[in-house]
Amino acid sequence: MMLNKILIVDDHAIVRAGLKQILNEGMLDVTVDEVDCGMGAIERLKHDQYDVILLDISLPDKSGIDVLKRIRADENKTPVLILSIHASDQYALRAFRCGANGYINKEAVTDELLKAVKKVSSGGRYISENTADMLLDILEGDSSEAPHSRLSDREYEVLRLIASGESLTQIGERLSLSVKTISTYRTRILAKMKMKDNNELTHYAIKMDLL
C-alpha cells in the first residue's frame, strides 16, 4: 500500500521533527502533517483524511487514550499507532481495547518505526516483542490480578497523576473536570486498590513502573 498522508500528534516539537525526518527519509512522496495536542488532532481529522495517525499517549490537554476513543466514536477507522515512553503492559492493553492498531515505544529504532507504520497501514497490527510478552503474561493470568488492572481508563489516568504529585485541583484543570469529580475518582481508586492514601498510591505506582 502506498502511504500518502500521515498525521503526527505529539506535544514535543523535537519529537515531531525527528519522526517527520524518519518518515520522509524512509518513505517516498509521503506528506507528514503535525499537531501538538489532542483537540488539534480531533479538529484536523474533521477536515483531512490520513493513511496513518501516530498518536502520543501523553498529551497536555487530553490523554492519547481519550483522543483514540474520540476518533473511533466518530467512526474514523484510520489506523492509529500509539507512541509511548511507557513500556507498561497496561498502556498497551488499554490502547488496543480502545481501537489502536499498534503500540510502539518512542525509543524504538528507525527501522522498527517504519516497519510498524507500514504494518498498520496495510491493515495489520504491530506490537514490540517485549510488550507482546507482557500481554501474554496477562492472558496467562500472571498479572491480571494486579490492583491497577481493576481501574477504568480514567481512574488509571488519575492514579498516575496523583502519583506524579499533582493536586486534585491541578488534575481537574488538566482533565477539564471539577475537583469534586476528581475527588470521587480518587475515592474509587483507593477502594478498588484497597489502599488508604496518596502515599500508598504513589509507592505502588513507582514499584509497578506506572509513571
Walkthrough of the structure:
With 211 residues, the protein is of the alpha/beta class. The protein folds into two domains: 5-139, Rossmann fold (3-Layer(aba) Sandwich); 147-207, Winged helix-like DNA-binding domain superfamily/Winged helix DNA-binding domain (Arc Repressor Mutant, subunit A, Orthogonal Bundle), CATH 1.10.10.10. Helix content is 51%, strand content 12%. A six-stranded parallel sheet has the order 2-1-3-4-5-6, with helices on both faces. Helix 7 crosses helix 9 (179-193) and helix 7 packs across helix 10. The relative contact order is 0.11. The model has no long low-confidence stretch (mean pLDDT 87).
What are the salient characteristics of this protein?
211 residues, alpha/beta, Rossmann fold, Arc Repressor Mutant, subunit A, 2 domains, 10 helices, 12% strand
Kindly summarize this structure in a few lines.
This protein is of the alpha/beta class and 211 residues long.
Q: What value does the Rg take, in angstroms? A: 18 Å
So what's the oligomer here? Answer: single chain
Q: What name is given to the CATH topology of the largest domain?
A: Rossmann fold
Number of strands: 6
Q: Which class best fits the helix and strand makeup?
A: alpha/beta
Please state the second-level CATH architecture of the largest domain: 3-Layer(aba) Sandwich
Strand order of the largest sheet: 2-1-3-4-5-6
Q: Low-confidence segments, ≥5 residues, pLDDT <50?
A: none
Distance between the termini: 37 Å
The whole-number mean of residue pLDDT values reads 87
How many structural domains? 2
Succession of helices and strands: EHEHEHEHEHEHHHHH
What's the CATH H-level homologous superfamily of the largest domain?
Answer: Response regulator
| Shape estimate | globular
Helical amount among residues, as a percent range? 40-55%
Name of the CATH first level of the largest domain: Alpha Beta
What profile does the largest beta sheet have?
A: 6 strands, parallel
| Strand residue percentage | 5-15%
